[in-house]
Amino acid sequence: MRHAHWNDLPSGGDLFGELHLADTRPTEEQGHRLFPGLAACAAGSAAAAWLSDHYGFPIILLGLLVGLSLNFISANEATHRGLDFASRTFLRIGIVVLGLQVTFAQIAVLGPIPFGALIVVMALTMGAGLLGARLAGQSPYAGLLAGGATAICGASAALALYGVIGRQRLSQAQFALTLVGISLASALAMTIYPLIAGEFGLNDAQAGFLIGASIHDVAQAIGGGYAFSDTAGASATIVKLARVALLAPVVALVSLILRPESGTNTRFWRRLALPWFIVAFLAVVTLNSAIAVPEAAREWALSGSKALLLLAVTATAMRTRLDLLLEMGWRATVPVALATLTSFGIALLFALTAI
């Protein structure tokens, strides 16, 4: 009978099992922990919220900048699960909760002509994003993301569309740069568009349509409308919420037209299925349209949605490589810039001629 040599035994010198435990349990535990990443994301988001509250900058933009400045945290693999969870799950729940801000009655109040004009503005804006990506030599998915986010509701739409496009088609660096461009353009538009509306002599209804149809983020669109007048603010709110309501059909259309990723054989009928969070968003809009949700509950839901989207944006920025972001250069901003200019130009044309 052959005797085993001591040195051939696994962990032969591990008298008390410390080496075995170090090789197994810590690795397994770290792979399943959400806390490190969630804690880092929460700290970055809290810093962004504090800066926004004290200095008045858009909170999503600050979440991006704080997250990018802390992206060295993601070098620790223990943070990956938590950051990925925040960037995906918090995003989807935030989109669902956003449905409490929209009703079908608000869309009906808009009227057929303004609603038709809004559809044209959104379609041409998405086309401009795709054209801008092609002119700048960028991926068509970057143009689709920039055009869709500009056409619908800014950062919220960008997050929803990126959830459908996927990291395999579009890098997180391009996604982060698109979010930065959208947030900056939206903040600038909130200040400039009301002044331009005044220079063109637009009335309250025209100014409300222009601002609601062309400013990206919900808060900036409503703020820009009320900066012109209370009546224009109410009109801009209705137009903007109509764009938010169109988030679901646009995301459904994008998921349908995108080809299956390489190596997958997805049947056509499966591609017709909406992402679960878009189905839930539609269900919440339907519920909000059918019953009278208390105003306090809607305000809490809006705050919760903003918080979840902020966490998702911050987590995404923390997982973004700055070296890839810097390598992209100015060409990566062309889709957002062209989509923004197109959105404003077409909306102004309709405001002057059809509203």
Radius of gyration using CA atoms only: 23 Å
Give the biggest beta sheet: none
Summing up helix and strand content along with how strands pair, one would put the structural category as mainly alpha
Strand tally: 0
Shape: globular
Strand content is under 5%
- End-to-end distance: 97 Å
State mean pLDDT (0 to 100 scale). 79
Helix content: over 70%
Query: Could you give the order of the helices and strands?
Result: HHHHHHHHHHHHHHHHHH
Catalogue the unreliable spans.
Answer: 9-28
Count up the helices.
18
Give the SSE layout:
Elements lengths: L17 H14 L3 H21 L3 H11 L10 H19 L5 H7 L1 H24 L4 H12 L3 H11 L6 H28 L4 H11 L3 H11 L1 H16 L1 H11 L10 H4 L4 H15 L4 H24 L3 H7 L5 H20 L2
Helix pairs in contact: 2-3, 2-4, 2-16, 3-9, 3-16, 4-8, 4-15, 4-16, 5-12, 6-7, 6-18, 7-8, 7-9, 7-18, 8-13, 9-10, 9-11, 9-17, 9-18, 10-11, 10-12, 10-18, 11-12, 13-15
Summarize the structure.
With 355 residues, the protein is an all-alpha fold.
Provide structural commentary.
- This protein is an all-alpha fold.
- It has a domain at 99-261 and 276-355.
- It contains 18 helices and no strands.
- It has helices at 18-31, 35-55, 59-69, 80-98, 104-110, 112-135, 140-151, 155-165, 172-199, 204-214, 218-228, 230-245, 247-257, 268-271, 276-290, 295-318, 322-328, 334-353.
- Helix 4 (80-98) packs parallel to helix 15.
- The relative contact order is 0.17.
- The model is unreliable at 9-28 (pLDDT under 50).
